[in-house]
Input
Amino acid sequence: MKNLNSFEPVENWPQIPHPLNFLEATSVAVDSINNVYVFNRGSNPIMIFNKDGKFIDTWGEGKFIRPHSIFIDDEDFLYLVDDGGHCIHKVTTNGDFIFTLGTPGSPAPWQEGGMFNRPTDLTIDLEKNLYVSDGYGNSRIHKFDYLGNHIMSWGEPGSEPGQFSLPHNIAFHQKGFLIVCDRENFRVQFFDTDGNFVRQIHLHRPQAICLGKGDFSGKLIISEAGSASLNQINVPNLGNLVKIIDLNGKEICRFGDSIGGELPNQFISPHGIIQDHEGNIYVAEVSYTAYGSKLNPPKEVVSLRKWRPKYN
Output
């Protein structure tokens, strides 16, 4: 029987050629052949690596205001969420733009539910409908068809079922659920594709979510952010780790030290997450925002982690 509770960090991954840098790797996704796409806040916002960490390509310079999230669909199209630009771009793997949701640089009024005010993430259901979490300046989920035509929206500020306090990440489960990381309400919420509330699971500031593959097929891989309270920094077991759970919230596996830091087995602010087809898990971190920018002098710190399974 495999020990599914065993992941180990891969040190010094990937190989970033000089003079490129991430500043911070906000999010990460993999395509159908396990190439890894890193949406980052450096001067070269898309960097592409193979599964061994070797650099392939970069593009997107000057195209984005504040990269936040990346999603790759089953046809290898990229969806790039620019929260500073208040929009989402659908692009090819070569960086050719197909369409844009929202008007770049034109936010909807703050917390009034319009599209968009600092959107955070995107996912796609089995019918190729798009769902956008509109989280920093709104408390809303927006649904579109595959061409980008708006279908419906739901959500408002609050802590009751169906309300949000920073919907930060979103995933679609093949059983028909949309699962939203309602970060500052310390929970993930489950909805059907019409926006009806199903249930919720308590977690510590759930920040990123993806669906598991292989041995973890059907399971949820969720990163928890550390405490936002200065009094709770470095208190153990309060975030800064990754959990794999089933749909009822039963924990199957976890990794990460839970005490924040730059060591290979630690996290600073795990902000984006994906599992590749070989079971490896990649975690992107907003580590400059959370930590590096506060140093004297400010400096870039590690912001992309790879964890490989020890059970293969």
Residues 7-309 form a domain with the Neuraminidase fold (CATH 2.120.10.30). The two ends are 11 Å apart (CA to CA).
